[in-house]
Amino acid sequence: MVEAFAHAAGSIARHVPGGAVGFKGVLLHIHVAPAASFEMEELAEAQCVAGRGIVGDRYYEGSGTYSPKPDTREVTLIEQEALDALARNDPPLQAGPIALAPGDHRRNLTVRGVPLNHLVGRRFRVGDVILRGGRLNFPCKYLEELLGLPVYLPLYNRSGLNCGIERGGVIRPGDAIELLDDDGA
Amino acid sequence: MTARVVMKLRVEAARLATPGVLHLTLVHASRPELPAWEPGAHVDLRLPDGRIRQYSLCGDPQDRRTYQIAIKREDAGRGASRWAHDALVEGAVAHVSAPRNNFPIREAARHVFVLGGIGVTPGLPMARSLAAEGADVAVHFCARSAADAPLLAELSAACGDRLSTWFSAEGRRFDPRAIGPYSEGACLYVCGPQRLLDAVRDAADALGWPETSIRAEAFQATLDENFKPEPFEAKLASTGATLHVPADRSLLEVLRDHGVTMPSSCELGVCGSCVCGYRDGVVIHRDAVISVADRQDRIAPCVSRARVSVTLDL
């Protein structure tokens, strides 16, 4: 894995002021997949390990589709608001609404009220766990093929955030998500 | 576009359909409904060691709660069926991909099926659906005996008098000429061991069935022991890169080595996952999935090779 703030995107954003502050979001769902292509399974709580990932997830195990490629992928997040938009067929880039259930999108954490696109290069907490925003996630054709749904285009620019884990711990749905004061930009 | 996500299914029921065929009813471990499928479709079963095997769905597509597959125990095989027979007991977990269909029902004026033994599995839902629509359909089912014929009761219930059974141990060995002469718009589906496929193809040829009217499904690619692989060059149309494929490696492996990751599954030339386009070059097709008409520009890089060089549409 590439350390989140060492990632090309994170390392630049780290030294650029700005972004969203004052939000308070919530963790809705936690999902992991035991191996590449395997269906995601929902967890009631998850153990996050700094520098590695979520225990039981394919990227923690090094068996993910993209594991052979060095990147920041210890934890991935997506906004429930983006999934709601797909369900409204907004924007209408495909034949109709797409019901992308939490767990089908293959990101680990589904969150609400968290401006993920502004968290590249920022530290934020999920419960007691501290995450570092490394880079924006990019939708992949692989996901489209796996799901049999045309999600590639409609997920553009809202496909979530790939993070590193600065401080590990246990997270649970319902945990609060907040921006942290920066300690070393 | 095909969904291929691997699901965790639970064995709801396991019974022996014949002494050598395990009939499994699978349900999702947490969801009430499984992905939809069409008659002729198969699923990939993941073995604990990472290998993948294809099994046709033999249940009813209207039943979205369960998948049914039947697995013949092949003691001389590569171990997958032995593992399945031993491990997939009631309550066990099976990792199974969403269905794919390489053997769909064709638009045809008449549908003739020749099913041999375990080859009944894709044929059963196909024949059932056609019979229910009132289509012109005839089914020939070949086995050693009625007791060795898997899913015979189900096939018989679905087809009624459209079914002819051929049991060699009971003095009725299948005569491939029973398929009858070709009639305009007819389609012949053959599924079973290679021996049966070959015999039916010969008979069909003699009875005037054009190649394009025949759909065959072998769950094992043609094994040609006399085939001697030769090295060749593969050029990528997009980058112009030329890759050397040595005699002892597959084109798929060489592509993978060079970071060209393709979807793949059976790596036997059966499932069609890795099929891609090609231009320029003489391809030695060794798969059992690409139709004759498509062979002029499609290649299965897991088993097929080229004479001297080929340019891939990658």
Largest sheet features of chain A? 7 strands, mixed, barrel
| Strand neighbour order, sheet with most strands of chain B | 4-3-6-1-2-5
Q: How many E strands of chain A?
A: 11
How much of the sequence of chain B is in beta strands? 25-35%
- Are there runs of chain B of 5+ residues with pLDDT below 50, and where? none
Number of helices of chain B: 5
Mean pLDDT of chain B: 90
| Topology pattern of chain B, helix = H, strand = E | EEEEEHEEHEHEEHEEEHEEE
How much helix is in the residues of chain A? 10-25%
Broad shape of chain A: globular
Helix/strand/pairing category of chain A: alpha+beta
Which two chains have the most extensive interface, and how many residues on each?
A-B, 12 and 14 residues
Number of strands of chain B: 16
Mean pLDDT across residues of chain A: 89
End-to-end separation of chain A: 21 Å
Q: Which keywords apply here?
A:
heterodimer, A: 185 residues, alpha+beta, 7-stranded mixed β-barrel, 3-stranded antiparallel β-sheet, 4 helices, 14% helix, 28% strand, B: 314 residues, alpha/beta, 6-stranded antiparallel β-sheet, 5-stranded parallel β-sheet, 5 helices, globular
Summarize the structure.
Chain A has 185 residues and is of the alpha+beta class.
Question: Can you characterise this structure?
Answer:
- The complex is a heterodimer of chains A (185) and B (314).
- Chain A has 185 residues and is an alpha+beta fold.
- Helix content of chain A is 14%, strand content 28%.
- In chain A, the strands form 2 sheets. In chain A, strands 1-6-5-9-8-7-11 form a 7-stranded mixed beta barrel. A 3-stranded antiparallel beta sheet of chain A has the order 4-3-10.
- Chain A is globular, with a radius of gyration of 15 Å.
- Chain B is α/β, with parallel strands linked by helices and 314 residues long.
- Chain B contains 5 helices and 16 strands.
- Classes of the chains: A alpha+beta (185), B alpha/beta (314).
- The A-B interface holds A 35, 37-39, 41, 144-150 and B 1-8, 30, 35, 95, 97-98, 263.
